[in-house]
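User: I'm curious whether this sequence folds into something compact or stays loose and floppy. Could you predict its structure so I can see for myself?
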Amino acid sequence: MINTTWLRTFCTLVDVGHFTRTAECLHMTQSGVSQHVRKLEEQLGVKLLVRQGKQFSLTEAAKRLYADAQDILLALSNLEQTVGEDPPYEGAVRVMSPGSVGLKLYPRLLAMQNVHSNLTIDYRFAPNTEVENAVVESSADIGFMTAKSTLAEVVCTPVAEEPLILITPAAVKNTDWNTLTSLGFIDHPDGSHHANLLLSSNYPQFQHSNLFARKGFSNQIGMILEPVSLGLGFTVLPAYAVEAFQRPECINAHRLANPVSETIYQCVLRNRSLPNRIKTVMENIEQWL
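Assistant: Here's the prediction. I'll summarize afterward.
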């Protein structure tokens, strides 16, 4: 394999046309320039220069080498620059979170991508366990969870508190126990968990969401409030999911006497060196939350 240092010295000599000035350009001695050229000749097994006193001319082999070497050295120079670059708004960033957090973040990340066209956002909605696994397996660069990971490989930083909200149809103003019982519960994948957190802190009668008639179920975060808006029941959801609902006039969001929130953790793989694009996205997300 050709020594690129010797090759660069040779091409500089051809460009400058003088040993002394080449040495000055490369911050070398003149004997060092001569040594590089001689070693290159030995490596290639061809004569490159015909010396005539202090002057020299190129052999045919040298002319061919010089012509081909320009593209090689330019490619190497570009490669060095590309490898050294770490732009803050270029490349793909893979984010994963539960649905409510995603409804808050995804539109803002798309707006960022719209401004910085070389940035690509890959956003996946998933429950905590899938987010945790994706971070460990490096299929997600940034994960958001509503429970702190128990895995040593995952670093979790609390970045926000998301309140849990009791949601009823718009016409319902009273949220006493009898009213909730008569309405019935619109369930979702985290319905029992959220109801337990919020309702147990505000209603002494509450033991489990099974106490309410189950009036519907949806596993699509953006659709859970649709049956509530039609008067079919009540539910408990994180605040970001409520904020994202497109017809707020059709529902009533009740903040109860004893507020309850879930901590949102930003999770990354421990000891991973994060490129600037990921750091930029993380910094912006922390501001949005």
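Summary: Residues 67 and 81 are 22 Å apart (CA to CA). The chain has a mean pLDDT of 92.
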